[in-house]
Write a structure and sequence with these properties.
The structure is a single chain. The chain has two domains: 4-195, no CATH class; 208-287, no CATH class. 33% of the residues lie in helices and 27% in strands. α2 crosses α3 (94-105) and α9 packs across α10. It has helices at residues 24-34, 66-80, 94-105, 127-132, 137-142, 148-151, 155-160, 193-207, 232-239, 243-255; strands at 14-15, 20-21, 41-43, 53-55, 60-61, 64-65, 108-114, 117-124, 162-171, 174-183, 190-192, 212-217, 223-228, 262-266, 274-278, 282-287. It is of the alpha+beta class and 291 residues long.
């Protein structure tokens, strides 16, 4: 029988590659996300339907949904810190408890909207994860002083569904930190980085083998469809260049930290045009054999 302690995130080693604690919950999620060669995106709190999506509510662990276990574990941890969540609040505060659990146990990809448009950022409430990172000289020198609120929590955070957190930004001299507020109710996605990374890797692998009609939600929320691929020979012919140069171009776009959360893909029906596609906005892939 599963014990709540198996899913506890306190005093656990940090898996730096995954940017999460090393516990049974994240091991289970990682296995589920990578057991198929097809892109599989594990989500939480029932966001809009996306390509390859499996919500945590659909994954059973010892006979109960994974998100139910997460809420129960986090409630118990909070109780030990003097924050009381009544049993009859587990349902009404369930989504907030799940988001809080994820932020305390991993670095999460968080969707947000601003005046400059939609974007993604990397956020955590786990100080051990931050300390394990190669911080920039500024933050290595002063440490994590001034981030007590971001690494802490309160009943008010759960009640409002709005969480203080630490944003992580990879710069040329190391990881820089910021203070942010994440609203689990307005943000469409709060997903551990390692799950998004697994999804991205399988998506890129699929696009390197197939030409597809890809449908995604644009900035306005409207569905947009493009014919695209990352097959080197097709992209090279489309660009009028060599396969090596095409590979270099598409790989640099994928690895560019300035476009975190987006993938730049060729629009094969418009010569030379690339479009920035939100990875967590892809709704469908359909085969396309057109040359």
């Amino acid at each position: 029988m599963l014990r709540l302690s198996q899913l506890d995130y306190r005093q656990r080693k940090v898996n730096l590659a995954a940017l999460s604690v090393d516990n049974d919950l994240h091991a289970l999620l990682s296995h589920r996300a990578t057991e198929s060669s097809l892109p599989t995106l594990l989500t939480f709190n029932h966001p809009p339907k996306l390509l390859g999506q499996v919500d945590a509510s659909e994954i059973l662990l010892d006979g109960k949904p994974v998100d139910t276990w997460m809420a129960r574990v986090h409630r118990e941890v909070l109780r030990q810190f003097g924050i009381q969540v009544a049993a009859d609040e587990l349902q009404s505060l369930g989504q907030a408890l799940v988001s809080s659990y994820l932020l305390f146990s991993s670095a999460c990809v968080v969707f947000y909207k601003s005046q400059r448009g939609p974007g993604y950022m990397l956020v955590t409430k786990n100080a051990d994860i931050v300390n394990a990172l190669p911080l920039s000289p500024t933050f290595r020198k002063k440490g994590l002083k001034g981030f007590d609120v971001q690494f802490g929590t309160s009943y008010e955070e759960l009640r409002t569904g709005s969480f203080h957190g630490v944003s992580l930004f990879a710069d040329v001299d190391g990881v820089r930190l910021g203070k942010v507020k994440v609203s689990a109710r307005s943000a469409q996605h709060v997903i551990p980085y390692h799950l998004v990374d697994a999804y991205m890797c399988r998506l890129v692998r699929w696009l390197r083998q197939h030409q597809v009609l890809l449908t995604f939600r644009s900035d306005t929320g409207a569905p947009t469809q493009i014919r695209t691929t990352l097959i080197d020979d097709i992209v090279a012919k489309w660009l009028g260049t060599t396969s090596d140069e095409a590979l270099s171009r598409t790989r640099s776009d994928i690895l560019d930290p300035a476009s975190f959360g987006f993938i730049s893909l060729p629009v094969l029906d418009e010569h030379g045009r690339f479009v920035s596609v939100p990875v967590l906005g892809i709704e469908q892939l359909q085969p396309s054999d057109r040359k």
